[in-house]
Specification:
Radius of gyration: 43 Å
Order of helices and strands: HHHHHHHH
Number of helices: 8
InterPro entries: DnaJ_domain (IPR001623), DNAJC8 (IPR042858), J_dom_sf (IPR036869)
Protein name: J domain-containing protein
Number of strands: 0
Distance between the termini: 163 Å
Pfam families: DnaJ
Helix content: over 70%
Shape: elongated
Length: 245
């Protein structure tokens, strides 16, 4: 199998890279409507988890570069600039604003950069495993797709999106579990409150009725004694019969 000359490969990649840069340049000056469409396109829920992707900046961009891009983009999608589509513009504006707040904060920006680093390490590991497989099959001379810098960059990009998605799913899972735990705790508290309220009400009613029971018993006892007294006082001995002879 004949191999493509190195110079031909380099020329091909240079052409491709130039095309990619032209696309990025074109996207960077998208119209407000196009930017709104980009931020709300199908699958945007996962794309927009990556703040660098939202603001269309490289992960190694300086904070000042990120800030300039944020300002330009926030103006483009601002609802006041898109009165004919203000509702969707508001959604896009909130996405842009949230991404800036993530990258503006040193701690959260570092976490995002850590995601990129992990994505690169996982991609490198995947490539190494693929290279070992090709070597075992005697196909190492063919090379692997990720040897192409553009395809390597795309592989890192895909892995980055996957990691952001995994983080979001984990966050949602923890949030749901926390909500369920709080709900169970609140239900237990309500049940306990209702039980205490029932016991308190029962004790109150019992105490209020206790005197009535005592009074009733005293009345009963008093009535019984009066009846016995009347019986004794009203007792008439039998008349003696005359003795017969």
């Amino acid at each position: 199998m004949s191999s493509i000359p190195s110079t031909a490969k380099d020329d091909s990649f240079d052409d491709f890279y130039t095309e990619v840069k032209e696309i990025e340049k074109r996207d960077s000056v998208l119209t407000p409507k196009q930017q709104i469409e980009r931020l709300l396109r199908p699958g945007s829920t996962y794309f927009n988890l990556n703040p660098f992707e939202v603001l269309q900046v490289e992960c190694d961009a300086t904070l000042e570069e990120i800030k300039r891009k944020y300002r330009r983009l926030s103006i483009l999608v601002h609802p006041d600039k898109n009165m004919d589509d203000s509702e969707r513009a508001q959604q896009a504006f909130e996405i842009v604003n949230r991404s800036w707040k993530i990258l503006e904060n040193e701690d959260t920006r570092k976490k995002c950069l850590d995601v990129y680093q992990e994505a690169k390490e996982r991609t490198d590991h995947m490539i190494e495993q693929k290279r070992k497989k090709f070597k075992k099959e005697g196909r190492l001379s063919e090379g692997i797709p990720e040897d192409d810098p553009a395809k390597y960059k795309h592989a890192v990009y895909v892995m980055t999106m996957k990691l952001f998605a995994d983080m979001e799913r984990k966050r949602q899972h923890l949030e749901t579990r926390d909500m369920e735990e709080r709900k169970r705790k609140r239900e237990a508290e309500i049940e306990q409150e209702e039980q205490l309220s029932f016991e308190k009400e029962w004790a109150k009613n019992f105490e209020e009725s206790r005197q009535n029971r005592v009074d009733s018993w005293k009345s009963f006892q008093s009535g019984s004694k009066e009846k016995k007294k009347k019986k004794i006082m009203g007792f008439k001995p039998p008349k003696p019969k005359p003795e017969s002879r």
